[in-house]
Amino acid sequence: MNLSKVGIIGCGFVGATIAFSLMQDSLFREMVLIDVDKDKAEGEAMDLNHGIPFAKPINIYAGDYSDLKDAGIIIITAGAGQKPGETRLDLVNKNVAIFKNMIPSITKYVDDAILFVVSNPVDILTWVTLKLSGFKENHVLGSGTVLDSGRLKYVIGTRLNVDPRSVHSFIIGEHGDSEVTAWSSVNISGVPINQFCEMRNYETNDENKMKLSNMVKNSAYEIIDRKGATYYGIAMAVRRICESIVRNEKSILTVSSMQHNYYEADGVCIGMPAVIGNDGIEQVVCLDLDEREAKLFKESINAMKQVINSINMD
After folding, report:
1. What is the rounded CA–CA span in Å between residue 127 and residue 129?
2. Which residues are catalytic?
3. Residues 312, 314: Cα–Cα separation, whole Å
4. Is the N-terminal amide bond of 121 cis, ω within 30° of 0?
5. What whole-number distance in Å separates Cα of residue 20 and Cα of residue 104?
6. Which string of b and e fits 67-80 if b means at least 16 CB within 10 Å?
7. What is the fold, at CATH topology level, of the domain defined by 146-310?
8. Secondary structure element (H or E) that encloses residue 225, with its range
9. What is the pLDDT of residue 93?
10. Predicted confidence band at 80 (pLDDT cuts at 50, 70, 90)?
11. From CA 234, how far away is CA 220, in angstroms rounded?
């Protein structure tokens, strides 16, 4: 497994923006772009290559599945995009059909990479990828709620007028309508959220927390309504996850991964904090949820299970 080589499958808005973000971060020495539209992949590779004189050396090219051989990380963004008024779960049947063809095409040439799913609905497709690939559980992950958690840090930081990087907070569960804000564990540089709000003369109550949670949950819909797609935020989230893998940082990020015996989350892939390093998911970090959060999390799990049970994997 060569962690200096990355493959990106799907060169739409998300895939191309991820490629641009990773190129600037100098994480990889080799990047192969794959798309059903070969001309699109070649065009993106040409455009990115013209920026190499202003970046660090990297070999970027368009290829096919056979070019994924030896890649350490394979980022999957291919699939139908989310349209205005459409939920992520509405995409299930369309994208599961795509993955049934795509994943075997990957595993024909790769057997020891980290498969990194970004396509929506990401939790369901991470589960589908794990089942179709037969890879080790720690080598299959999705972008999960990493972006949602980042959005939450941003809105909290904005409200309290502090650097969002000083906000420590997690959104867990589905990357979607049933996601859960773990308010009981939110802190600003170690100071519990309620205490910090008092320091900043900001009134904190369940209503205000709900408003912020809804802002985060609905932000993707608002962006899609305004510009048709989201891609900058998720590209930055993907880059952050890749950094932790390639640099073996052991960072804790809320990726989507297979869960076992945590608040009824058994046999589903869903966003949870996890230690991320060279070998993918090193350990899931189980949060101590309060009663309300646990109830909402179980509802999110049940929503995922219902979808999974409806999928025909034959």
Report:
1. 5
2. 175
3. 6
4. yes
5. 27
6. bbeebbbbbbbbbe
7. L-2-Hydroxyisocaproate Dehydrogenase; Chain A, domain 2 (3.90.110)
8. helix 206-227
9. 83
10. confident
11. 10
- Residue in 117, 80, 101 with CA at minimum distance from that of residue 270: 117
Residue type, 136: K
What is the per-residue pLDDT across 115-137, written as a single tens digit (0 to 9) for each?
Answer: 999 999 999 999 999 999 999 99
Contact call for residues 256 and 117 (beta carbons, < 8 A): yes
DSSP SS3 for 41: helix
CATH number among 3.30.230.70, 1.10.540.10, 3.40.630.10, 3.40.50.720, domain 2-142: 3.40.50.720
pLDDT score for 310: 86
**Tokens found for residue 10:** 């799907």
Tokens, residue 235: 């590209």
Structure confidence by residue, pLDDT tens digits, 241-278: 999 999 999 999 999 999 998 887 789 999 999 999 99
Question: Model pTM greater than 0.85?
Answer: yes
Q: Which amino acid, one-letter code, is at 32?
A: V
- What would you report as the CA-atom Rg of the chain, rounded to the nearest whole angstrom? 19
